[in-house]
Specification:
603 residues, mainly alpha, three-stranded mixed β-sheet, 3 strands, disordered N terminus, binds zinc ion
Length: 603
């Protein structure tokens, strides 16, 4: 399940007050130890305050470079701007990157606090990633679907952060820039991948069609003057003409040397390092996922063999192990809720999960930030069956929603297949992943971490890895009463994560074919055809992201083992979890370095 998370949290002003408090406390301690403390240490307070100022300047300038992202993060100063991705714009980004790499260099890292050192590393990585995207990856050339202004504008219409009239006025200004936006796109496109070309044609057409409808409705509801309304409609019509022109440009493109959708190992390795920020290489992660797949198959075979007679009586066991596992899974999957009970079942489970986590001392849950389960809003429909919508960093006290897709209007066969996938066992694992102690719990912790940098530039592998780790951790601690059915379905679920990694690496660096992919997903990971085809489409159109789940999971499991080794019988699972999450959504490798160094100092 995908998770829509507008990362979190603190206004710069709030950071200052938190930091100030911390530093006052720190200086009192330093005064008490004045005789053996070198005076330089006291200066670091000021030094770190300078770095905090720098971070805020960096964020301000970043929003000016990326106004559309700013809007969707809840920063609305640049709502009237669209990024026109021409050569001039890209030069500006490169300048921005170089200037900030210089600024970062000018800070002496030995004087920075541990948290600021982490932030410096995160900013540095972000800048390198931007440079890489423009100069090496060049998706702006070969991925025509990276241009689509409709999503950002639809977001402004559907999110109620300002009076409708203000939002529509900004939308009008954006629409005015849409022809220039697509002109730049046309000039950029060179030998696009045929798959991304097709996607761009579908998405741009569909996106503006639905925008046209909702915008006209909103205009009707608004109190704008007739003149203003007429102007907006004029810009809208010009924008739609520009989109149609872009779509026909794409359709008529000769494209005899279209790039492969496969990234290739050199770009893949670089992108993996910059985006996942793991201490492992992608090859190491691939090997580890391969081992995990074999381990999971062995575990599943053992359980399936044990369960066979319960469900199949004296029928002889299939000789093929994968066929045996598959038959048992299919049978257990028929144990599921009715279509109209889907949302209420999820709602009922959240407090049960919270009780389990608290009763078993797994992690502290903050009761002041409740999770609201709601029907998936219309504008998200079809994106994901279940997702978390989190408040952005500029709206820390906003609600956190668990969006649940409705099965209303689905034909019986489609609903049945979906409900088998989210049967009584997997539905619980889904809730662990999305809600408690998964994404939602992590988010509450992340909101409490005093860093705008970790909030905005949160690491996807850490976030997904935590949710995947939470699934295993709950079962290890007895959630589901160690029922063999629960474990079997968990292993199937975990296998999906593992195979996401195998698939992504194999497709983008090892030329895995469609047939090989389907074999991996349907035979070895027990997925339905429709799900597997959907995954094939996703792996063609995206790269690297599918490895984030397993990579983060492995890194967190490894870190837990390392801490256990160092601490021996002093290891406390609850403390480990709370400490791990206290740093915000930072890359696991940075959290790891900090936690291990803290542990060694305690010894
Ligand atoms: Zn059924
Ligand atoms: Zn997730």
């Amino acid at each position: 399940m995908t998770t829509k998370r507008n990362h979190l949290h603190l206004l710069p002003e709030i950071i200052y007050s938190v930091m100030k408090k911390a530093f006052t406390f720190l200086s009192i301690i330093l005064l008490m130890n004045a005789c053996n403390t070198p005076p330089a240490t006291t200066d670091n307070t000021e030094y770190n305050k300078n770095f905090d100022d720098y971070k805020n300047r960096f964020v301000e300038q970043m929003w000016a470079m990326y106004p559309m992202w700013a809007t969707e993060t809840g920063y609305h100063k640049y709502d009237s701007l669209l990024e026109i991705n021409n050569a001039d714009y890209r030069n500006h980004i490169i300048q921005f990157v170089n200037q900030h790499l210089d600024s970062l260099q000018s800070f002496d890292s030995t004087k920075l606090s541990d948290l600021n050192k982490m932030d410096a590393a995160i900013i540095n990585n972000f800048l390198q990633l931007n440079k890489f995207n423009i100069e090496e990856l060049k998706a702006w050339q070969w991925n025509p679907s990276s241009y689509n202004a409709s999503g950002n504008i639809s977001y402004m219409l559907s999110e109620n952060y300002e009076p409708l009239e203000n939002r529509i006025r900004n939308i009008g200004k954006k629409l005015e820039q849409v022809p220039a936006y697509y002109q730049a796109a046309k000039e950029n496109i060179q030998n696009p991948s045929p798959e991304h070309l097709q996607l761009a044609i579908e998405q741009n057409k569909g996106g503006f069609e639905s925008l046209q409808t909702t915008l006209k409705d909103s205009l009707g509801e608004s109190t704008l003057s007739t003149d203003e309304k007429t102007n907006i409609v004029t810009y809208l019509n010009k924008a739609i003409a520009a989109v149609e022109d872009y779509v026909s440009f794409l359709k008529n493109l000769k494209n005899e040397n279209g790039r492969s959708f496969r990234l290739g190992s050199e770009l893949y390795a670089k992108k993996f390092n910059l985006e996942i920020e793991s201490s492992y290489s992608y090859e190491q992660i691939y090997d580890s996922a391969m081992q995990r797949k074999n381990y999971l198959h062995i575990q599943m075979a053992t359980i399936a063999t044990k369960l066979w007679s319960k469900y199949f009586g004296n029928t002889p066991l299939p000789e093929d192990t994968l066929a045996l596992i598959s038959k048992v899974i299919d049978t257990i999957s028929t144990n599921h809720v009715k279509p109209d009970e889907f949302q209420t079942t999820i709602e009922k489970q959240i407090p049960e999960l919270e009780k389990f986590v608290t009763d078993h001392n797994l992690i502290y849950l903050d009761p002041s930030k409740p999770l609201k389960v709601r029907k998936e809003p219309a504008y998200m429909a079809g994106v994901a069956g279940a997702s978390i919508s989190a408040p952005g960093p500029y709206d820390k006290n906003g609600n956190t929603y668990y969006n649940v897709g409705s099965l209303a209007g689905w034909d019986a066969q489609r609903a049945e297949s979906y409900l088998r996938e989210y049967n009584n066992y997997t539905l619980q694992i889904l809730n662990i992943h999305e809600a408690v102690p998964g994404h939602y719990t992590q988010l509450v912790y992340s909101n409490n971490s005093p860093s705008i940098i970790k909030a905005i530039l949160g690491n996807g592998a850490m976030v997904e890895g935590w949710a995947v780790y939470g699934e295993l951790m709950m079962l290890e601690n007895g959630y589901g009463n160690n029922e063999p059915e629960m474990w079997l379905m968990y292993y199937k679920w975990n296998l999906r994560t593992v195979c996401n990694t195998l698939l992504d690496v194999s497709v983008h660096t090892r030329n895995m074919t469609h047939d090989e992919a389907m074999h991996l997903l349907t035979k070895e990971a027990f997925q339905q055809n429709a799900e597997a085809e959907g995954k094939w489409r996703r792996v063609m159109l995206t790269n690297v992201q599918l490895t984030s789940y397993y990579t983060g999971f492995k890194e967190i499991c490894d870190l837990r083992e390392e801490c256990k080794k160092i601490q021996g019988n002093k290891f406390d699972l609850k403390k480990f979890h709370e400490k791990f999450l206290s740093f915000g959504s930072a890359p696991v490798k940075l959290i790891r370095a900090q936690m291990l160094s803290d542990l060694k100092q305690q010894k």
